[in-house]
Design brief:
Layout: H1 8-18, H2 21-47, H3 51-66, H4 69-85, H5 96-121, H6 125-133, H7 138-168, H8 180-190, H9 196-230
Amino acid sequence: MTDTFHPSYILEYIPKILQAFPMTFYILFMSLVLSLLIGAVFAFLSLSGKKAAGTIAKGYVSFMRGVPTLILIFLIYLGLPQVMRNFGVDMSGISLSTYIIACLSLSVSANMAEMMRSAYLAIDKGQREAAYSVGMSPVVAFFRIIFPQALGVAIPTLGNNIIMLFKETSLAFTIGVIDMMGKARAVSAANYGATKLEVYIAAGIIFWALCFIMEKGTKLVEKAYTKGRKA
């Protein structure tokens, strides 16, 4: 093992780490879809006006935002199968990627719920009342009047949540998923850790570059959507 730093290795390792990008993208996409669905449920409960539903939503959001994602991963991956085994349920057939998607979806859904709630409340209440006054049902008023405006408000926060979720996919390696971080560890192990600095610099560059692209993409989408709405 040598402590010599080889910058040229960084460019060599970037393509190797990117070989695992499809798995990272799969985790990101599935976690994003599920977190939006779960977040929508708890945003609805929070906005329902019912005390019990609001309390449940607040408790869920508080718990998920307060528990580190890594702890949640270990609780679900290590703890849930053990608990279910006591009820005669065997979870050994569930894939590692399914566990990490479930964990990330639950963790990020709290921020998604707050994003949706805030975006909904940002729309003037008078617009809803005006829609009802011309005969629109609550569902029609929501999709034709409220949702298009709330989406414009939510785009920046949604972009930030996606970037945060993307960075958290790097935790998948902790349970053995071969995503980009898992691939980086494998590359480092193949060299007996001799070039681990170069490997992780390469991984850091990849994550930074993709986050930069997503950030710029979010701004472009926000600009285009806002311009379209104004037009």
